[in-house]
Amino acid sequence: MDLKELCTLAVEAMGHAYAPYSGYKVGAALLCADGTVYQGCNIENASYTPTVCAERTAFFKAVYDGHRDFTAIAVCGGKDGVLTGAFPPCGVCRQVMREFCEDDFLLCFVTPEGYETHTLAEVLPFSFSAKTHMQL
Ligand code: THU
């Protein structure tokens, strides 16, 4: 599974989005250390705050299935599912990534031209982690 394939799975996941309120469809594909991939989409709610992002859907599916080691996540999104640029994860999703991932965890943002990569250390520096807080 290379990053380009992971991006393709994120685009496919975007098609599963339930986003009748914002119209922004988001997809994610999370690569586990053992090669398993979990896809996620955003799922909105009439009451707004119960909305869950695509990245967290993917993480929670994977964690439920017993995965704890992750290598990379590809993310894409856009109004009505049309990609116009990178769709970086919100702060809450970055914090969820930090719960399970190290500094070198890779984030791939799908763009109309291809994808760009960043590390978790880049997108969430000075983070609060389970490792430092709970000595896990
Ligand atoms: N959204 C995600 O799925 N991931 C993010 O990291 C940012 C935001 C979703 C939530 C909401 O359904 C829509 O995008 C607009 O904010």
Can you give keywords for this protein?
136 residues, alpha+beta, five-stranded mixed β-sheet, 5 helices, 5 strands, 25% strand, globular, binds tetrahydrodeoxyuridine
Strand order of the largest sheet: 2-1-3-4-5
Helix content: 25-40%
Spans of 5+ residues with little confidence (pLDDT < 50)?
Answer: none
- Global Rg: 14 Å
- Range of strand content: 25-35%
Structure class: alpha+beta
Overall number of strands: 5
Output the helix-strand order.
HEEHEHEEHH
| Coarse shape | globular
Bound molecules: tetrahydrodeoxyuridine
Give the integer mean of the pLDDT values.
95
- The separation of the N and C termini measures 30 Å
Largest sheet: 5 strands, mixed
Number of DSSP helical runs: 5
Task: Describe the fold and architecture.
It is a single chain. The chain is α+β, with helices and mostly antiparallel strands and 136 residues long. Helix content is 31%, strand content 25%. The protein has a five-stranded mixed sheet. Strand 1 (24-32) and strand 2 (37-41) form a beta hairpin. The protein contains five helices and five strands. Bound molecules: tetrahydrodeoxyuridine. Tetrahydrodeoxyuridine binds next to strand 1 and helix 2.
